[in-house]
Amino acid sequence: MEASCRMDKQHEGDSLTFRNAAQMGRDSAKSLEQPKWSWTLKLAVYGTSLGATLPVGYCTGVVNSPAVHMRAWCQEALLARYDLQLSADALELLWATVVSLFLVGGAVGSMTGASIANRFGRRPAAFICGLLLGLGAICFYACRPLRSVELLCLGRLLVGLAAGLVIACMPMYHSELAALQQRSKLAPLCGLGLTVGVVVAQVFSLQTVLGGPEHWHLALALYGIFVLVCYAPFRCYPESPKWLYIVKGRKVEAAQQLQLLRGYARDSEALQAELRDMEEEARVKSTPSSYAQVLSNPQLRLPLAIVFIYLGGQQLSGINAIFYYSVSIFRRAGLSSQQAEFANLGAGCTNLAAAMLGPILMERFNRRPLMLFSSFFCCVFLFLFAMLLQFIDLYSWFALACIVCIFLYIVVFQFGLGPLPFFIGAELFEVAPRSAAMSLGSVVYWLCNLIIGMTFPTLQSAWGALVFLPCSLTCLLVFMFTLRYVPETRGRDPSEVAPLVADGFKSKRPRH
């Protein structure tokens, strides 16, 4: 017992020494050469955003519009190939399987994200994402000509695995490539890529574009062009300097990658300052890195809770329910089928326009006020939407008010609830536990996504418009949790944030 206490105190002393030294290094670095926005950094970050996160968003939204044609094709393909006639219930079960395989793959991919990122590196993890997405596109393109429902299911599983890896690894990869001064601009790119992908999918899956009965397989596979173009220069994408230095001890390679990413000269004092920070962080040997170590460490309980609540709360806040069932919602609000389809596209474009403000907002405003503003007004607009939709027949203007509430909800969602959950883990956790923590958060993300997909139709049938009240309550809980427990992370290294949350749920209320 005494030995254990001495070890804990020694570890705390080492951690404190590291944080003090790192802080001194950062303070002195402020007067040094500023990191440049090198072509290597831009190519890697924008390339993986367009080549991996955008396709994941695309695969999330592409099946909604052509779903009726895909179901009919599944019935025809099974009858022609196996002489198997499915009943209505069996066909519904098959379609639920096709949809849910993406979510199951996401959860499984998330669980493997930490081991892949730690063992092979952040860059190989990004390559595996692209490989899985490319194989999925091939499956989608070939399934209809070959009349193979199996290829359709395999494609959904492969892109789901890629999606899990993307959510777990890509924000971490971007964060470790960027200097501290550059992270606010680059941090929202993962969420932005997903949003862009959804909008692109909505456009190309329209019935008048590629969403018809003859071309839906082309709509499913179209994202492969983004993967092919953006992964063509993959050899130029750098590895994370922090992973090279701290996890693998390959110090010379880490210095070379920093020179490429920052534009530093070999004898630059700014380069040496970053390397000294990494050396101090690498000296803390007992930092947890496995799932079991991260889950059992009391100092990481509050950061884990923040990641879980933010990623889970994002999915349970109603955004996916809005987009999954937006066409039917717009129809109930009084629009025709064609008007509802274009209103759905308008909602997606609004979501994209608001998401593009993310890098600007994250650079100019602190994280806490953005999340508090976003979660509070998401709660308000969802509550108003539920009440207006429930009593839509009372007044004629209630239908228009419902549509306005949806669009306002989408805008304020992208101020905080949309982008922040994807990268908050990279700003809370130091390098060693980061991959495990973000993988666990990604699992929560996909499980909550699965819960919404499986339970929302049943609850909507039972409760009607009031099904959005639990979503409104979720936003309120995120608001209260942020107000009480979440520290400000903007412009701070994770080693500065760690002491603010080290006491778990007993941590003092953050003042800024």
From TrEMBL:
Similarity section: Belongs to the major facilitator superfamily. Sugar transporter (TC 2.A.1.1) family.
Protein name: Solute carrier family 2, facilitated glucose transporter member 1-like isoform X2
Domain of life: Eukaryota
PROSITE patterns: MFS, SUGAR_TRANSPORT_2
Subcellular localization(s) per the UniProt record: Membrane
PANTHER family given in the database record: FI08437P-RELATED (PTHR23503:SF127), SOLUTE CARRIER FAMILY 2 (PTHR23503)
Membrane topology of the entry: Multi-pass membrane protein
Coiled-coil blocks: none
Keyword terms, alphabetized: Glycoprotein, Membrane, Transmembrane, Transmembrane helix, Transport
Residue ranges of every copy of the Major facilitator superfamily (MFS) profile domain listed in the record: 45-490
Main location: membrane
Chain ranges passing through the membrane: 93-113, 125-143, 155-174, 186-204, 216-234, 302-325, 369-392, 398-424, 436-456, 462-483
